[in-house]
Specification:
alpha/beta, TIM Barrel, three-stranded parallel β-sheet, 15 helices, globular, Amidohydrolase family protein, Metal_Hydrolase, lyase
């Protein structure tokens, strides 16, 4: 069984240096420095993939992304990340595909960056991590990014990002437990994912999918809560929306989901029933998650038909990211 994983990450030493020097958004992963070799060394990535039966990774920069640098550094930082990514992919063209880092807070330049990355560097779309300085992507100022993706017929991966300090203080800080508990609750344990679910709901409500029907949206962590609530959202959507389709119709048409290393059978079966195997891809979230043999074994042993297994293992990703 061919296996492609689609939410896998890299970084560069230059970007790590600039992030630490300039970013107001501080990384809250206590293992970030420890993970550096797995982020920057593509030969090390290939060795891991060979060991665990992974044929290809779709690689992107998330976490320490140049996206969150101050505007005067973000454009050049994103360009440098994308050039370096393309160079690394050229050394292993059958093992990696890439998604462009976008300077999202400067939307016109982000759109230009996406187009250059797809048409000149051969990258397969772009990644956006979380909200942008606390602002969600439904704001009209971000439309150039969606317009460019729609024109290119390419994919935007909506990845979680570090939530704002104000959000964290209101929702997760407490005198009843320690600071580490609040940080984890606000991040990978819950808060990142809830914010990305809100991001998706806002895009649907704002009619972004109606206006840009050719954009494909990738969403990890089994859809960041959205699939569980599709019927509930549709039930209320008619009260607030005059869009021609139901929320779930847009979602099932343009969104593609993956587990991001959350190898859990109940969530998989829910997403499979809601979306179908042709809207599910596989992912490990390497190197933040290193599931090893389970990355392949879970999918091989899952309660799926052979056709579903092949679609989830590689077929959907090949279509979504134009890997054929």
């Amino acid at each position: 069984m061919k296996l492609i994983t689609v939410e896998e990450h890299y970084d560069t030493d230059q970007n790590i240096k600039e992030f630490k020097q300039y970013s107001e958004v501080k990384n809250n992963n206590p293992r970030q420095d420890q993970l550096r070799p797995d982020l920057v060394d593509f030969a090390k990535k290939v060795a891991y993939m060979d060991q665990h039966g992974i044929d290809m990774q779709v690689i992107s920069d998330a976490g320490n992304s140049a996206q969150v640098l101050p505007d005067q550094y973000a454009v050049d930082g994103a360009h440098a990340q994308n050039e370096t990514l393309a160079e690394n992919i050229s050394q292993y063209p059958t093992r990696f595909a890439g998604l462009a880092t976008l300077p999202v807070n400067t939307p016109d330049q982000a759109a230009q960056t996406l187009e250059y990355a797809v048409t000149k560097l051969g990258l397969k779309g772009g990644i956006i991590s979380g909200s942008v300085n606390g602002q969600f992507l439904d704001d009209p100022r971000f439309e150039p990014i969606f317009a460019a993706a729609d024109r290119l017929g390419t994919t935007l991966y909506l990845h979680p990002g570090v939530i704002t300090n104000d959000q964290k203080a209101m929702l997760y800080d407490s005198k009843a437990y320690n600071a580490l508990s609040a940080t984890m609750m606000a991040g990978a344990m819950w808060g990142w994912h809830m914010e990305q679910g809100i991001q998706m709901l806002r895009l649907l409500t704002a009619g972004v999918f109606e206006k840009y029907p050719h954009v494909k949206i990738a969403s990890g962590h089994w859809g960041e809560f959205m699939p569980m609530f599709l019927e509930r959202i549709d039930g209320f959507g008619g009260m607030i929306s005059d869009l021609p389709l139901k929320y779930s119709d847009y979602y099932k048409r343009q969104v593609y989901l993956s587990p991001s290393g959350m190898y859990t059978a109940p969530q998989m079966q829910l997403v499979l029933k809601e979306m179908g195997a042709d809207h599910i891809m596989w992912s490990e979230d390497f190197p933040y998650v290193q599931a090893g043999e389970q990355t392949r074994q879970f999918l091989e042993q899952a309660d799926l038909t052979d056709a579903q297994r092949e679609a989830i293992a590689h077929g959907t990703a090949e279509t979504v990211f134009n890997l054929l």
